[in-house]
Amino acid sequence: MPTQLDQILAHTRSEVETRKAASNNEKIPEDLSVEMRRIAHDLSNALEIIIQTSYLLSTVELKEPASDWLRMLDSGVQKAMSYNLELRNYIKDHAAS
Prior knowledge:
Elements: H1 4-22, H2 30-58, H3 66-94
Helix pairs in contact: 2-3
């Protein structure tokens, strides 16, 4: 059963797809797209630290509820990476240069 967060995310994705279709011809100004790429890159680096830490935690035996927290962390990181990739692709597809 989808959680409330999953429902909100699905609705948000639907809105993004609608806007994407409506604004396919719009371009992001070059100076703005450069800054957006920098921020997306920095976000990727920060997420990589979390991913590596999560991996290291998965190599040791964790007691409950810590193992549940690790699964929640993994799920959240995967979603964040997916959104970051979506953002990077959007920037690439809509950059003026």
